[in-house]
Design brief:
This protein has 423 residues and is mainly α. It has 16 helices and two strands. A two-stranded antiparallel sheet has the order 1-2. A hairpin with a 7-residue loop joins strand 1 and strand 2. The protein is globular.
Length: 423
């Protein structure tokens, strides 16, 4: 055990976290770059709707296989090296998208940015464990997650008016939007490289179980044991459906609303409101869950609130002037989805520190769900689209939350001190 004087708490930890949050927000900005302007991008580039949707879909597609090697690099080289890798890839390949009249180069640019995303997003737990004491871990993790929402909000709300300001009838306007976002990415890279430090002079005070877990290397045996747990597999399935549908809606929001006469700018604002509701849910519900030390009731609450409101966002004929408010209500209810995020993989002693494969299984589950969801869009279902059926699938899938997840701690075979599931 370390003595009292061997621990340190430095105000600079907030500078490190802020620089990380900026890079993380940029990754989400890049992901949804084309989502709120799908129709204009389709016309300006002269490609099909599928090809435009594919640009955003590359992120969840690439995230799944790259997440595992990214996790190993984070755990062995530290978060600073990993985030720098991700930020360099994001910036370099973002500038490649300036060749807006060449779809292949734009697609390669999005693939390159997608490869960098896991190096950034999976680093948050390492940032927290390196700089923050146990009592501030939840706050620091929450702020890191908040930056992702902020990046989404900027992409949804700012991109349509920005494109319009540069003259949306010319492909040069698309180049200007990409150029501005690329400069933002470059600024985030420079700031992180200058400000982020890998570790403080003295480590923060962590609980004994967390400190033990942070010294244990990730192995495939632990990963297999984790997926051998019933509740973990079920939770992955729940997140696959819930977050997959939510993020799929983000990628297709403009195409979903366009058949009902809602213009691009308004569609982007509606998407931003939905994400803003997610911010509220992410801040409020986990705090209550932590105070009560209960998880399952809030997962059930998320299902009860989110699944029915998906039908409110489904294009239904003759909805009349109340449609805008209906989409807003659906977006507000989407804020109940983020309580899935606090479910983390147990390490030795029950810590939640891991950045590697077993620490991000739940994060890869929604990525797979996003890929599945992105294959369905209004073009495949007539004027009404396929979202009514999607809502039914979501409602059925969320029933798993109440019927399958156990409400008692479960022994984790990989780590004797670990626990899975809680009430």
């Amino acid at each position: 055990m370390k003595g009292e004087g061997e621990y340190g708490l430095y105000g600079y930890r907030w500078v490190v976290l802020a620089s990380f949050m900026l890079v993380a927000a940029v990754t989400q900005l890049m992901w949804l770059n084309y989502a709120p302007i799908t129709s204009q991008t389709q016309e300006l580039m002269g490609v099909s709707e599928f090809k435009v949707v594919l640009l955003a879909t590359m992120f969840p597609l690439v995230y799944i296989p790259v997440s595992i090697p990214a996790g190993f690099i984070i755990d062995r080289r530290g978060f600073r090296a990993a985030v720098l890798i991700g930020a360099v890839l994001t910036t370099a390949f973002s500038f490649l998208r300036l060749f807006a009249d060449n779809y292949v180069l734009v697609l390669l640019g999005m693939i390159g940015i997608s490869v960098g995303q896991p190096f950034v997003l999976n680093s948050i737990t390492k940032v927290v464990s390196s700089w923050f004491p146990t009592e501030e871990s939840a706050l620091a993790n929450g702020l890191g997650s908040l930056s992702l929402f902020l990046g989404m909000i900027v992409a949804m709300a700012l991109t349509p008016p920005l494109l319009k300001a540069f003259g949306e009838g010319h492909i040069a306007s698309l180049r200007w939007v990409v150029f501005i976002y690329s400069l933002v990415s470059l600024a985030a890279l420079v700031l992180f490289a200058l400000l982020a430090r890998p570790r403080p002079p003295k480590p923060p005070r962590r609980t004994e179980s967390e400190a033990l877990g942070e010294e244990v290397a990730i192995d495939l045996k632990a990963l297999r044991a984790l997926f051998g747990l019933h509740d973990f597999r079920l939770l992955c399935a729940v997140i696959f459906i819930g977050n997959g549908v939510f993020v799929g809606l983000m990628q297709l929001i403009e195409k979903i609303l366009k058949p009902k006469g809602i213009e691009t700018g308004t569609a982007g604002n509606i998407g931003a409101v939905m994400v803003l509701a997610g911010v509220v849910g992410c801040l409020v519900i986990p705090a209550i869950s932590d105070r009560l030390m209960r998880r399952k009731p809030f997962l059930v609450l998320a299902a009860a609130a989110a699944a029915p409101t998906l039908f409110l966002r489904t294009p239904i004929p003759d909805r009349g002037p109340q449609e805008f408010g209906t989409y807003i209500r659906g977006g507000r209810a989407a804020g109940f989805l983020p309580p899935q995020r606090p479910a983390r993989a147990p390490g030795p002693g029950g810590g939640d520190h891991r950045s590697g494969p077993d620490g991000n299984g739940n994060q890869r589950a929604p990525s797979a769900g996003e890929c599945r969801r992105s294959g369905h869009h209004p073009g495949h279902g007539g004027d009404k689209g396929s979202y009514g059926w999607g809502g039914g699938v979501l409602l059925l899938g969320h029933g798993l939350r109440g019927s399958g997840l156990r409400g008692r701690p479960v022994h984790c075979p990989a780590h004797p001190g670990g626990r899975e599931g809680d009430g």
